[in-house]
Amino acid sequence: MSLKHSAAGGLFSRSLEIAAKHITLHGLRYSMASFLREIWFDLSHGVDTTTLHGSMDHPHSVHYQGADPQLVKQLLSSLPTRARASTFVDFGCGKGRALLLALEHGFQEVIGVEIAPDLAAICRRNLAKSTRAHHFANARVIESDATTFTPPSGAVSAFFFNPFHGPPLEQVAANIASASQHSGAEAWLIYVNPLHLEPFLARGFKLVHSLMHRQTLLAVIAHLQPGATHD
Protein backbone atom coordinates (compact mmCIF):
# COMPACT_ATOMS: atom_id res chain seq x y z
CA MET A 1 0.00 0.00 0.00
CA SER A 2 1.37 3.43 -0.93
CA LEU A 3 1.91 6.13 1.67
CA LYS A 4 -0.78 8.20 -0.05
CA HIS A 5 -3.35 5.40 0.23
CA SER A 6 -2.28 4.69 3.80
CA ALA A 7 -2.76 8.34 4.77
CA ALA A 8 -6.16 8.44 3.07
CA GLY A 9 -7.20 5.30 4.90
CA GLY A 10 -6.08 6.84 8.18
CA LEU A 11 -8.14 9.97 7.57
CA PHE A 12 -11.20 7.88 6.67
CA SER A 13 -10.85 5.80 9.83
CA ARG A 14 -10.46 8.92 11.93
CA SER A 15 -13.52 10.47 10.26
CA LEU A 16 -15.59 7.43 11.22
CA GLU A 17 -14.23 7.52 14.76
CA ILE A 18 -15.07 11.23 15.16
CA ALA A 19 -18.55 10.74 13.69
CA ALA A 20 -19.31 7.79 15.97
CA LYS A 21 -18.14 9.69 19.05
CA HIS A 22 -20.15 12.77 18.07
CA ILE A 23 -23.33 10.73 17.58
CA THR A 24 -22.83 8.93 20.90
CA LEU A 25 -22.45 12.23 22.76
CA HIS A 26 -24.98 14.40 20.95
CA GLY A 27 -27.37 12.09 19.11
CA LEU A 28 -27.87 11.48 15.40
CA ARG A 29 -30.11 14.51 14.72
CA TYR A 30 -27.75 17.06 16.31
CA SER A 31 -24.69 15.46 14.72
CA MET A 32 -26.20 15.47 11.23
CA ALA A 33 -27.37 19.08 11.63
CA SER A 34 -23.90 20.11 12.78
CA PHE A 35 -22.26 18.40 9.80
CA LEU A 36 -24.65 20.07 7.37
CA ARG A 37 -23.95 23.47 8.94
CA GLU A 38 -20.23 22.92 8.41
CA ILE A 39 -20.75 21.98 4.75
CA TRP A 40 -23.00 25.00 4.19
CA PHE A 41 -20.47 27.30 5.82
CA ASP A 42 -17.77 26.22 3.38
CA LEU A 43 -20.05 26.38 0.34
CA SER A 44 -21.39 29.82 1.22
CA HIS A 45 -17.91 31.23 1.94
CA GLY A 46 -16.04 29.47 -0.84
CA VAL A 47 -13.52 28.00 1.60
CA ASP A 48 -12.41 24.62 2.95
CA THR A 49 -12.64 24.36 6.74
CA THR A 50 -14.50 21.04 7.02
CA THR A 51 -12.30 18.32 5.56
CA LEU A 52 -10.07 16.59 8.07
CA HIS A 53 -6.31 16.84 7.87
CA GLY A 54 -3.28 14.63 8.37
CA SER A 55 -1.97 13.44 11.70
CA MET A 56 -0.35 15.75 14.24
CA ASP A 57 3.18 14.84 15.32
CA HIS A 58 3.04 16.84 18.54
CA PRO A 59 2.26 14.66 21.60
CA HIS A 60 -0.10 17.15 23.25
CA SER A 61 -1.89 18.29 20.08
CA VAL A 62 -5.35 17.20 18.94
CA HIS A 63 -6.20 16.37 15.33
CA TYR A 64 -7.75 19.17 13.30
CA GLN A 65 -11.52 19.52 13.31
CA GLY A 66 -13.55 22.69 12.76
CA ALA A 67 -16.01 23.86 15.42
CA ASP A 68 -19.74 23.93 14.66
CA PRO A 69 -20.38 27.36 13.05
CA GLN A 70 -23.68 27.80 14.89
CA LEU A 71 -22.04 27.08 18.23
CA VAL A 72 -19.28 29.61 17.58
CA LYS A 73 -21.84 32.22 16.53
CA GLN A 74 -23.78 31.65 19.76
CA LEU A 75 -20.63 32.12 21.81
CA LEU A 76 -19.56 35.28 20.00
CA SER A 77 -23.06 36.72 20.36
CA SER A 78 -22.89 36.05 24.10
CA LEU A 79 -19.80 38.23 24.53
CA PRO A 80 -20.38 41.81 25.70
CA THR A 81 -20.25 44.47 22.98
CA ARG A 82 -16.96 45.84 24.31
CA ALA A 83 -15.26 42.51 23.57
CA ARG A 84 -15.39 43.31 19.84
CA ALA A 85 -12.74 45.96 20.48
CA SER A 86 -10.39 43.25 21.74
CA THR A 87 -7.99 41.22 19.63
CA PHE A 88 -9.46 37.83 18.75
CA VAL A 89 -6.79 35.12 18.96
CA ASP A 90 -7.51 31.55 17.89
CA PHE A 91 -4.95 29.23 19.46
CA GLY A 92 -4.58 26.27 17.11
CA CYS A 93 -6.57 28.02 14.38
CA GLY A 94 -6.41 25.14 11.90
CA LYS A 95 -8.10 26.19 8.67
CA GLY A 96 -9.51 29.39 10.13
CA ARG A 97 -13.25 28.87 10.54
CA ALA A 98 -13.39 30.64 13.92
CA LEU A 99 -11.33 33.54 12.52
CA LEU A 100 -13.80 33.99 9.66
CA LEU A 101 -16.72 33.98 12.08
CA ALA A 102 -14.97 36.49 14.34
CA LEU A 103 -14.54 38.83 11.37
CA GLU A 104 -18.23 38.50 10.56
CA HIS A 105 -19.05 39.23 14.20
CA GLY A 106 -17.26 42.58 14.07
CA PHE A 107 -13.80 41.95 15.47
CA GLN A 108 -11.40 44.34 13.74
CA GLU A 109 -8.23 42.42 14.56
CA VAL A 110 -7.98 38.62 14.43
CA ILE A 111 -4.90 36.44 14.83
CA GLY A 112 -4.58 32.74 14.17
CA VAL A 113 -1.77 30.81 15.86
CA GLU A 114 -1.01 27.49 14.18
CA ILE A 115 1.98 25.20 14.57
CA ALA A 116 1.36 23.08 11.44
CA PRO A 117 2.73 24.82 8.30
CA ASP A 118 0.25 23.16 5.94
CA LEU A 119 -2.75 24.15 8.05
CA ALA A 120 -1.42 27.70 8.42
CA ALA A 121 -1.14 27.95 4.63
CA ILE A 122 -4.74 26.77 4.14
CA CYS A 123 -5.91 29.23 6.80
CA ARG A 124 -4.19 32.12 5.01
CA ARG A 125 -5.89 31.17 1.74
CA ASN A 126 -9.28 30.98 3.43
CA LEU A 127 -8.76 34.37 5.09
CA ALA A 128 -7.69 35.93 1.80
CA LYS A 129 -11.05 34.97 0.32
CA SER A 130 -12.88 36.70 3.15
CA THR A 131 -10.87 39.71 4.24
CA ARG A 132 -11.39 41.43 0.89
CA ALA A 133 -14.90 42.16 2.17
CA HIS A 134 -13.59 43.44 5.51
CA HIS A 135 -11.51 46.45 4.54
CA PHE A 136 -11.02 47.63 8.12
CA ALA A 137 -10.11 44.27 9.59
CA ASN A 138 -6.57 43.16 10.33
CA ALA A 139 -6.34 39.39 9.92
CA ARG A 140 -3.13 37.41 10.10
CA VAL A 141 -1.87 33.89 10.76
CA ILE A 142 1.25 33.29 12.82
CA GLU A 143 2.97 29.97 12.24
CA SER A 144 4.25 29.25 15.71
CA ASP A 145 4.16 27.00 18.73
CA ALA A 146 1.38 28.52 20.83
CA THR A 147 3.52 28.32 23.97
CA THR A 148 6.02 30.82 22.53
CA PHE A 149 3.40 33.23 21.18
CA THR A 150 3.19 36.50 23.11
CA PRO A 151 -0.42 37.71 23.38
CA PRO A 152 -0.94 41.23 22.03
CA SER A 153 -1.20 44.14 24.41
CA GLY A 154 -4.67 45.27 25.34
CA ALA A 155 -7.86 43.25 25.70
CA VAL A 156 -7.82 39.76 24.19
CA SER A 157 -10.55 37.26 23.30
CA ALA A 158 -8.80 33.88 23.26
CA PHE A 159 -10.51 31.07 21.34
CA PHE A 160 -9.81 27.37 21.85
CA PHE A 161 -11.42 24.30 20.31
CA ASN A 162 -9.52 21.85 22.51
CA PRO A 163 -6.43 22.18 20.27
CA PHE A 164 -3.89 20.85 22.79
CA HIS A 165 -3.61 19.90 26.44
CA GLY A 166 -1.13 19.23 29.22
CA PRO A 167 1.95 21.44 29.71
CA PRO A 168 1.41 23.42 26.46
CA LEU A 169 -2.10 24.48 27.52
CA GLU A 170 -0.89 25.35 31.01
CA GLN A 171 1.84 27.55 29.51
CA VAL A 172 -0.56 29.31 27.13
CA ALA A 173 -3.02 29.97 29.97
CA ALA A 174 -0.17 31.43 32.02
CA ASN A 175 0.93 33.61 29.08
CA ILE A 176 -2.58 35.02 28.59
CA ALA A 177 -3.05 35.73 32.29
CA SER A 178 0.39 37.31 32.56
CA ALA A 179 -0.21 39.56 29.54
CA SER A 180 -3.57 40.63 30.96
CA GLN A 181 -2.07 41.50 34.34
CA HIS A 182 0.84 43.34 32.72
CA SER A 183 -1.33 45.45 30.41
CA GLY A 184 -4.18 45.90 32.88
CA ALA A 185 -6.65 44.83 30.16
CA GLU A 186 -9.32 42.18 30.55
CA ALA A 187 -9.22 38.84 28.76
CA TRP A 188 -12.01 36.62 27.53
CA LEU A 189 -11.77 32.85 27.11
CA ILE A 190 -14.00 31.21 24.49
CA TYR A 191 -13.51 27.46 24.86
CA VAL A 192 -15.32 24.87 22.72
CA ASN A 193 -15.21 21.29 24.04
CA PRO A 194 -13.68 22.55 27.29
CA LEU A 195 -12.03 19.39 28.54
CA HIS A 196 -9.17 21.18 30.29
CA LEU A 197 -10.50 24.29 32.03
CA GLU A 198 -8.43 24.04 35.18
CA PRO A 199 -5.32 25.90 33.90
CA PHE A 200 -7.51 28.95 33.22
CA LEU A 201 -9.58 28.76 36.40
CA ALA A 202 -6.39 28.45 38.45
CA ARG A 203 -5.21 31.76 36.99
CA GLY A 204 -8.31 33.73 37.86
CA PHE A 205 -10.67 33.21 34.94
CA LYS A 206 -14.32 33.17 36.04
CA LEU A 207 -16.99 31.29 34.13
CA VAL A 208 -19.72 33.62 32.87
CA HIS A 209 -21.57 31.56 30.25
CA SER A 210 -21.95 27.93 29.19
CA LEU A 211 -23.72 25.96 26.48
CA MET A 212 -25.04 22.44 27.08
CA HIS A 213 -26.62 19.70 24.97
CA ARG A 214 -27.91 16.42 26.40
CA GLN A 215 -26.10 17.09 29.68
CA THR A 216 -22.83 17.52 27.78
CA LEU A 217 -20.92 20.75 28.22
CA LEU A 218 -20.35 22.05 24.69
CA ALA A 219 -18.56 25.32 25.38
CA VAL A 220 -17.90 28.05 27.92
CA ILE A 221 -17.00 31.69 28.13
CA ALA A 222 -14.78 32.86 30.99
CA HIS A 223 -13.55 36.31 31.94
CA LEU A 224 -10.33 37.51 33.54
CA GLN A 225 -10.31 40.90 35.22
CA PRO A 226 -6.71 41.93 35.95
CA GLY A 227 -6.11 42.71 39.58
CA ALA A 228 -9.03 40.58 40.78
CA THR A 229 -8.21 38.23 43.64
CA HIS A 230 -8.42 34.46 43.15
CA ASP A 231 -10.93 32.46 45.16
Give the gist of this structure.
This protein is an alpha/beta fold. Helices cover 42% and strands 19% of the residues.
Write the layout of secondary structure elements.
Blueprint: H1 3-26, H2 28-45, H3 69-78, E1 87-91, H4 97-105, E2 109-114, H5 117-131, E3 138-143, E4 156-160, H6 167-183, E5 187-192, H7 198-201, E6 206-213, E7 216-224
Parallel strand pairs: 1-2, 1-4, 2-3, 4-5
Antiparallel strand pairs: 5-7, 6-7
Helix pairs in contact: 1-2, 3-4, 4-5
Summary tags:
single chain, 231 residues, alpha/beta, Rossmann fold, seven-stranded mixed beta sheet, 7 helices, disordered N terminus
Strand content: 15-25%
Instruction: Outline the low-pLDDT stretches.
Output: 1-12
What's the helical proportion of residues? 40-55%
Seen as an oligomer or otherwise, the chain set is single chain
CATH architecture: 3-Layer(aba) Sandwich
Strand count, sense and closure of the main sheet?
7 strands, mixed
Radius of gyration: 17 Å
DSSP strand tally: 7
Mean pLDDT: 85
Structural class: alpha/beta
Helix-strand sequence: HHHEHEHEEHEHEE
